[in-house]
Each structure stands twice: as C-alpha cells, then as structure tokens.
Amino acid sequence: MQQARKNMMRRKFTLAAALCALLLVAAAAWSGAPGGDVPAGKGPGLTRMLTELDLSAAQKREVAGILKANRDSTKALRDSVKSAMDALRGVMAKTPGDEAAVRAAAKAVADAAVELAVARGRVKAAMDAVLTPEQRAKRDALREEFRDKWKARRLERQGELDAWIESNLS
C-alpha cells in the first residue's frame, strides 16, 4: 500500500513537472513575434503588447536593443526546451512505464525551462527599467487578459475531457 502511494506521488510529480515545462514553452511561444500573415502589432505576443504600450521613439530603440542583444541566447534556450520536450515525448511514446527514463527526460525539460525562465526574467527586468509605471501597469493588464483567456480555454478543454471520461465510464 505504501509503495503504491509512493508510485502514485512519483507519477503525479512527473506529470506536474512535464506540464510546468509545457506551460513555460507555451508562454515563451506566446511572447514571440506574431507568425504567419498576421501584421506586426496586430497578432499575439510581445509585438502586439509593445505596440499597445505606446512607447516613445527612445523607448522603442532601447527595447529593440534589449531584445536584439538577447535574441540569440533566448532562441538557443527555447530550442533547448523544445529539444528536451521532444525527447520527453519520445520516451513517453516508446517507454512510458520506465519511470527512471521518464524522470530523467522530465528533469531535462524542467532544467531547460528554468534556464529559459531566468533569461526571460533578465529581459523583463531590463525592459521594466525602460517602461514608465503606467506602461508597466498596462503591460501587466494585457498579460493578465491573456492568462484569463488561456485559463478559460484550458478549463473548457478539461470539461470536454471530463465529459468524455464520464460518458465512457457508464
């Protein structure tokens, strides 16, 4: 009984670590430039947010310099997280019952995500030094709006899964 409880806790921890890493990857993707045919400043992410902050010309130059100076290192870190996630998906596809392999792969994702989060924190701190208090407040409100939309989508999907589970247990 005790061993079964420990195994359940390990599985929950592994799943939680993988989900946290996935959330970090999603957040990193969201903060990137808009993709596809979306005009700059009109799509999701950092570009739209910067446009909505009404930066002065001097602020735009400073923020652009911060982003350019950190572009290569943060791209490398995002790629590292993506590679670690791909490796975790591979382990889950081939040997999901191998707890040691799952743990190692999930830990690699978490470690890569930590480094990305630290780098993003540095960029955010540098940008905060450029923004006015009003612009920071507006930025925070835009981020909260995104989080609310993301949470609503997540709850909707969870509700769909819960309904599917219930319909297939009867």
UniProtKB/TrEMBL annotation:
<dbReference type="InterPro" id="IPR052211">
    <property type="entry name" value="Cpx_auxiliary_protein"/>
</dbReference>
<dbReference type="Pfam" id="PF13801">
    <property type="entry name" value="Metal_resist"/>
</dbReference>
<protein>
    <recommendedName>
        <fullName>P pilus assembly/Cpx signaling pathway, periplasmic inhibitor/zinc-resistance associated protein</fullName>
    </recommendedName>
</protein>
<feature type="signal peptide">
    <location>
        <begin position="1"/>
        <end position="31"/>
    </location>
</feature>
<dbReference type="GO" id="GO:0030288">
    <property type="term" value="C:outer membrane-bounded periplasmic space"/>
</dbReference>
<dbReference type="GO" id="GO:0051082">
    <property type="term" value="F:unfolded protein binding"/>
</dbReference>
<keyword id="KW-0732">Signal</keyword>
<dbReference type="InterPro" id="IPR025961">
    <property type="entry name" value="Metal_resist"/>
</dbReference>
